[in-house]
Amino acid sequence: MNNPKNSSANILILATGGTIAGTAGAALKRDYRPGQIGIDAFIQQADALGLKARLTGREVAAIGSEDMHPDLWSTLYSACAEAMDDPQVDGVVITHGTDTAEETALLLDLTLPTNKPIVLVGAMRPADAVGSDGMRNFVNAIRVAADGDASGRGVLLVMSDRVISARDARKARTSGTDAFRGFPRDSIASVTPSSLDWFGDPWATDRPARFAFPDKFPTVPILYAYAGMQTDAVDCLMQDGTKGIVLAGFGEGNAPGIIRRRLAEAAESEIVVVRASRVDEGLVDRESEDDESGFIAARGLNPVKARILLQVMLASGINDPALIQQAFDRR
Ligand code: DGL
């Protein structure tokens, strides 16, 4: 529902680039460059629409999110952490490329408290394309970040008039404005520039940060399963310094017997192994073999997000498979 009490909220915009700030130079051109429009110009355009929220911008980067990296994550985390403590800020919106938005969203969700809304937003069409979705998504994101009911739900992602929680959000299409999906939960709210409807109550009101932000991200490669794969696919990931492996397995996190056995050997040598799925949707649950092999089941997290959770836990010094499994099991 609309929440007029927050209609003049102070929202900090952290810009990182992506298609939402991209231009092609011509409305009918296919190729474009992400991260071209400065945040001030963007805010001016949004203000001109008559938004009541007061927007302050900070350009953290101007990249395509395929180039997102731990140093930039660290800068974003610090800016958000400061905003969480700053009484002058009511909410944060992060403009982000869509390619890795789900990873950034989950990382911040795991490492920040839930006392104020943090909303990631992107676009699938550059700003000067016909039917660009950028400004609409942005205005929707402001509306969400300015809403008193948005806090206590962790980090959120706003795309195509939908609000998806960080844990659930995944990019599911390479093109088209309806590129994101939520799994296991789909949208948790519907938003337009003139309406906002939450489908349930906040579930994490005033929750403190669950994990410390990593000083260093441990090496955790993803092993993509394919028919006929051989053990060399695992061996080349087991370099010195590899702390974990996420299997993007068949179906419910399966892999050929020889691969499972090699992964069990890896687990014995203290590399934490998480079984996720290369299939877009569906849970990967624990199997009895996981106990024998020392594996963890990714449950609802896809491989890239399972990797983020595992990295955050390993960086916090947690490498007991039972404790890691608990973190994968919980919402
Ligand atoms: N590669 C891009 C990025 O993630 C542009 C695509 C997008 O933002 O949707 O920044």
Q: Would you give an account of this structure?
A:
With 331 residues, the protein is of the alpha/beta class. It contains 9 helices and 14 strands. Strand 4 (118-121), helix 4 and strand 5 form a beta-alpha-beta unit. The model is unreliable at 1-6 (pLDDT under 50). Bound molecules: D-glutamic acid. Residues 18-19, 34, 64-66, 97-99, 122, 124 line the site of D-glutamic acid.
Please sum up the structure shown:
With 331 residues, this protein is α/β, with parallel strands linked by helices. The chain contains 9 helices and 14 strands.
Overall pLDDT: 95
Shape: globular
The set of bound ligands, ions and cofactors reads: D-glutamic acid
> What Rg is obtained from the alpha carbons, in whole angstroms?
20 Å
Note the beta-strand portion. Answer: 15-25%
Oligomer: single chain
**Distance between the ends:** 25 Å
- Which structural class best describes the helix and strand composition? alpha/beta
Unreliable spans are 1-6
Number of helices: 9
Helix % is 25-40%
- The neighbouring-strand order within the major sheet is 2-1-3-4-5-6-9-10
**Number of DSSP strand runs:** 14
Strand/helix succession: EHEHEHEHEEEEEEEHEHEHEHH
Largest sheet: 8 strands, mixed
